[in-house]
Design goal:
mainly alpha
């Protein structure tokens, strides 16, 4: 199970989830399948953070796509622009910056890790990004447990996700735990990789939302 395959699984399950949310809100199977996507994206974000050759480019790319995607996200889900709910790229961006400030590799920042975590969770909640504070907890669960042996790592992460799901959201979110067996078989390899493929996975997010919006309005 390489990075490319994980991206495909996450993308397909996310599109299924959004299809269900936009067109068949009463059919839960779409949402159940969709719960697999976000934990995989959290895992990939952490792996990307550790392997990127240029953190600034990585962060800028996430933020730019967060801004671009917001228009499509708002129209696809709400039919108009608004600030009541921000897309998942903002969640991933906040999580990425939290890891960066926690690491503080060059010693430039005076914030300790607990303050960074609190600030990231508060920001995600105030901005009401996708998954809000739960999203940040997921990301940091993968981040702090990354170096543990696989069994211990996924046991810890599973427990954190389970408790967070119980506290913060509906029962359906527990299906997110199904992502962990998939991630357990990650082999550390990238699989097919080039600039076109990399950009395609980013573009797929706003593009599928645009298509769903056009279908919704009967374009």
């Amino acid at each position: 199970m390489n990075t490319f395959v994980l991206k495909l699984i996450a993308l397909i399950s996310m599109i299924i989830d959004h299809y269900g949310a936009i067109f068949h809100e009463d059919i839960m199977i779409y949402r159940m399948i969709g719960r697999i996507a976000f934990p995989i994206y959290c895992f990939l974000l952490v792996e990307g953070y550790y392997h990127t050759k240029d953190f600034n480019k990585y962060a800028k790319r996430l933020f730019i796509f967060a801004l671009i995607s917001e228009v499509f996200f708002d129209y696809a889900f709400y039919g108009k622009l608004g600030f009541g709910h921000q897309n998942v790229f903002f969640t991933l961006f906040i999580g990425l910056m939290a890891m960066h400030f926690i690491d503080n590799k060059e010693g430039k920042y005076k914030l300790d890790k607990n303050r960074v975590i609190i600030l990231a969770i508060a920001l995600a909640s105030i901005l009401f990004v996708d998954y809000t504070f739960m999203g940040i907890i997921y990301i940091l669960a993968f981040y702090f447990n990354r170096e543990y042996p696989s069994k211990k790592k996924f046991l810890n992460i599973g427990l954190i996700m389970l408790i967070t799901n119980i506290i913060s959201t509906t029962l359906i979110q527990q299906f997110s735990l199904l992502a962990l067996p998939v991630l357990y078989f990650y082999n550390g390899k990238l699989g097919p990789k080039n600039k076109v493929l990399q950009l395609s996975f980013y573009i797929a997010y706003p593009l599928h939302l645009l298509i769903f919006y056009l279908i919704k309005v009967g374009f």
